[in-house]
Amino acid sequence: GSCRVSMSMAEIRAGFTAIKANIQSRDPIRTLSILSHPHSLHKLKPSDRCCITHQLFTFYVDKVFKHCRTEDSFVNRKISSIANSFLSASRKLGQCREQNNCVCGEESTEKFKQILANYEGLNVTSAAMKSLGELDILLDWMEKSR
Amino acid sequence: GDALLPAPQSISILSTNMKHFLTWSPVIIQGATVRYSVEFQGEYEREYANGSWIPISECSLTTATLCNVTQDISASVPYRLRVRAELGSARSPWGTTEGFFTRAMTSLTPPQLRVLADGHHLLVELADMGPSFQFHVLYWKKGQESRVQQKVTREVSSVVHLDTMEAGAEYCVKAQAHVEAINRSSSFSPTQCVRAQGDTSLWL
């Protein structure tokens, strides 16, 4: 089967674009990447795409957004908007996995392990801010692989 | 202190065409200007951020009894909103919306449109309803109701070409608004009909 999830990419993209510069300015470590090290998401096989998307959405909901609270009300509101959109989408993807339409292959499992290792290699606030700052990498990959 | 200042009452959300407003009744204190502050909470905040609430800066210490929460109700999850009164250093208890609000609960009105015949061309102009909207436009030659055609468009406030009409024939148009984010549509607008320009060639 296949897994089709409706989500408002334009709304998420608009929310992120509004705070991207602010978030990325809080990430001092420019030489490291959470999502793209050592390999880009674009290298993943199409069959693994659904699984890694679900894993990444769950990763952002469980680990990232809660450590990104700032002193800026506008930024916090946009983060909330993205977080709630991710929660809504990850729920739908979860249903796909329950119906076995979103199988996890070896590649996506390996890739997600690497992302978690990159994340846990930094202190939690830096890791969370860096991950949030890389959201456009995820959004670009999702839109290219639609 | 706080006990003197009652929480705002009659708190409700008015939502039409994906524009969401929180309203409440004023707290009346003779000779004083009471101000209000509004906060929101999405499902993410309830389940992953310790039930935290997020202030809406445009509605912090406002004297209005209305707050535009459209920018913050921006995901398809259940939200709660709350408002309290403030007078000097006194704060009232929070008044919170009854139940949850999901943007899919918004009421959708039919689009406003203007149908034009420009010579043989059937044109339509749709009023802007906001970034979330697209329009399903149905059009047909009068008398041929079984051969309805459809055009989906996001174009607003400018003329959209629907069809080239037969000389002198009458064509009818109606449209509905659709919001992909909530997968819902409005009812159809009233039907509007126009007549194509007659044939100007003369048989001699």
TrEMBL record, chain A:
<feature type="disulfide bond">
    <location>
        <begin position="50"/>
        <end position="102"/>
    </location>
</feature>
<keyword id="KW-0964">Secreted</keyword>
<dbReference type="GO" id="GO:0005125">
    <property type="term" value="F:cytokine activity"/>
</dbReference>
<keyword id="KW-1015">Disulfide bond</keyword>
<feature type="disulfide bond">
    <location>
        <begin position="51"/>
        <end position="104"/>
    </location>
</feature>
<comment type="function">
    <text>Immune regulatory cytokine.</text>
</comment>
<feature type="disulfide bond">
    <location>
        <begin position="3"/>
        <end position="96"/>
    </location>
</feature>
<dbReference type="GO" id="GO:0005615">
    <property type="term" value="C:extracellular space"/>
</dbReference>
<keyword id="KW-0202">Cytokine</keyword>
<comment type="similarity">
    <text>Belongs to the IL-10 family.</text>
</comment>
<protein>
    <recommendedName>
        <fullName>Interleukin family protein</fullName>
    </recommendedName>
</protein>
<keyword id="KW-0732">Signal</keyword>
